[in-house]
Design goal:
Elements lengths: L1 H6 L3 H4 L4 H16 L6 H17 L3 H13 L6 H18 L8 H21 L4 H13 L11 H18 L12 H4 L1 H9 L3 H11 L2 H5 L9 H12 L5
């Protein structure tokens, strides 16, 4: 952690106690990331290692909330290639570090995940939910925190995303809004269909299936199709297996 702080720009200022110093650091980081320079994945993974450290070290609730909101808003002004790579590196970092977060720090990282999910939706809405961009981001989720079979992805992170996903979408696209019918809801829920179809963990499948039964989805235009062959096979095996006495 100390090595990360020394090597990553802006980190010392972002964990400062006074708000003015933190705000200046966020502004500098926003300028740095929104420019026309080309970043490599390694560049942004190193940066995210430092930003993760910033959240880890933030201590007061108001400071924690402000920091997570500010970091999530960094995405708003990025060039497209930088934004998608930055989000990919965020999720990769969260997956890697999740199991090492202690119970006293977990709340602020739950908040960080919520803010970044909201930021992702906000970014896509600002681009009119263009299907190519939505599909690209869904691929990031399916290969990252919502990967169905990767045992390195903590189920606790999957559960959190299942719990908050539709709530954060509804904040941007209320179900009673006429415009909300235009969102590509079939694309937006593909990661959860994948979890239902392919996850080897019954609780993940059940919670994902429950989410797909949420009445808001129908109001957004989602029409539930028949169960996939994989899902039906899962359920058949579960019915056959009676468990231990």
């Amino acid at each position: 952690m100390e090595e990360t702080r020394r090597q990553t720009p802006f980190i010392k200022q972002l964990v400062a106690n006074d708000r003015q110093t933190r705000d200046q650091a966020v502004d500098s980081l926003r300028t740095y990331l929104s420019g026309k320079r080309t970043f490599t994945k390694l560049d942004l993974l190193k940066l995210w290692k430092g930003l993760f450290y910033c959240v880890w070290m933030s201590d007061r609730p108001r400071t924690q909330q402000r920091l997570t909101v500010d970091l999530a808003h960094l995405v708003d002004t990025m060039q497209e290639e930088t934004a998608f790579l930055f989000l990919e590196c965020f999720w990769e970092t969260i997956v890697r570090e999740w199991d090492g977060i202690d119970v006293l720090r977990m709340d602020k990282f739950l908040m960080l995940v919520r803010q970044y999910l909201a930021s992702s939706f906000r970014y896509l809405k600002a681009r009119e939910w263009e299907q190519g961009k939505v599909g690209r981001y869904m691929d990031i989720l399916k290969e990252g925190p919502l990967h169905a079979k990767n045992i390195k992805v903590p189920n606790g992170l999957r559960y959190h995303l299942i719990d908050i996903y539709l709530d954060e979408l509804e904040k941007l696209e209320p179900v009673d809004s006429e415009e909300s019918a235009d969102i590509p809801i079939d694309l937006l829920i593909q990661p959860y269909i994948q979890l239902v179809d392919k996850s080897p963990t019954k609780v993940v499948r059940t919670r994902s299936r429950d989410m797909l039964e949420d009445e808001r989805l129908e109001k957004w235009g989602y029409i539930k199709v028949n169960k996939s062959e994989d899902e039906a096979a899962h359920e058949e095996r579960e019915e056959e297996w009676a468990g231990f006495d």
